[in-house]
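Thread title: Can someone regenerate the structure for this chain?

I was given the following input by a collaborator and told the matching structure tokens would be attached. They weren't. Posting the sequence so someone can regenerate them.
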Amino acid sequence: MNKKAVLFAFSLLMVGLIIGLAVSVKMNVHELTFAKETGISADTTRFLGKLSSSLSEVAEAVKPSVVNISTTKTVTMKHSSPFDEFFNDPLLRKFFGDRFGFNGEKRKYKSSALGSGVIVTDDGYILTNNHVVKDADEIKVVLYDKREFKGRVVGSDPKSDLAVIKIDAGGHLPAIKIGKSDSLKVGDVVLAIGNPFGLSQTITMGIVSAVGRSNVGIADYEDFIQTDAAINPGNSGGALVNTRGELVGINTAIFSTNGGYMGIGFAIPSDMAKAVMKSIIKYGKVVRGWLGVTIQDITPELAKHFNIKEETGALVTDVIKDSPAEKAGFRRGDLIVEFARKPVRDVTNLRNMVADTSPGKTIEVKVIREGEEKILDVTIAEFPETLMTRAGSYQNVLKGIHVQEITAELRKTLDIPEKVTGVIITSVEDKSPAYGILRINDVIQEINRKAIKDIEGYEKAASGIGKEESVLLLVYRTSGYIYVTIRP
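Best answer:
Regenerated them for you:
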């Protein structure tokens, strides 16, 4: 009886195994059939797998070079209250004074911010944005391996929105290799690495959407790489790398109407960042080259009047007295088409090339003068700090207006009466609020009803205008006077 029970149990077990195998085979066949129905070829699968593993390899190689930067600074704000206007009444103040504490009382508090940075040397130099560390009381740097260090600002450059900070970590840090950004082409694949919203070591992928972006309004010296790799708040100062794992840009800003990612991000090219970094480390500041001309972009109308066939270049509108350009023989009306044997696209391109040239270096410049090519050898000087504010760098309605003092030659050439004082406009950038309102050779005589006698007076008046403030100008134009208003 026991033998029959054992045989029966064994028979049931075998039947179960057979059924299980049948079901398993059927399921595997179904899966194989399903895979065939997708139509994905083996070649495609291998290619995508290789691409995925390649991007992962690049990401793993560069992530240790990107750090998290957190800053703390003291912010002073005036105390506000709905009763401020009431207690500011002169009669009440006469009797009660300021005992209620509403009259201009200032309060201080700590403000924190997050950003990113890139280790560029193994002994602790880190590149980031100026706006990430500006006015910071404390800087904390968190490495990829979670180690924390106190950072100090070696130097910063607001005009390019770059800064160099240093940490003392005992050396042997994972420094990134700096690539050549001028070799980037539209369509190249790039990775953006940073700490958006405090989420450390976030990597996004995209392409180079454009190169040489300027007039964005972020910095004075602009030559941005535009990318669609997702960049968000906190990514500032992070790395933009190519498929070789080389640093090609410092992520800086985004175009957005809602504060978030909209597919347009900007990075400072590594070539510019490297030059700024070297200057800061060596001199503690950025030393830029200076040619000594005021320039504007060539337009079809200007080309026709000057009998110029070229469609690119920078037109000289004035030559500054005792400048390198004057000594080299530059003249108003020259079209600069090559600088150091490199073609000049436009004003921004030339400005950046001159700025990146070391003072004391002699450069060959090709110009078109009255239809003929001329080669001028000019020895670049250091950009004088006193001219900085004259180059239209104000962050108000006078931004983009380039001026100079009225010389005897200009008075004679433009028939400006002796009684007319002020500064003369040499160019107006197309992104300026004054574009289309003010013209070249206009003389600014008054700003907000205050007389302007010279450059110093202009600088003082212009620097006192608020970012959102309108301005009233008295302008001398072609033998007459006009009042003009410029609004933000």
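The CA atoms of residues 156 and 260 lie 27 Å apart.
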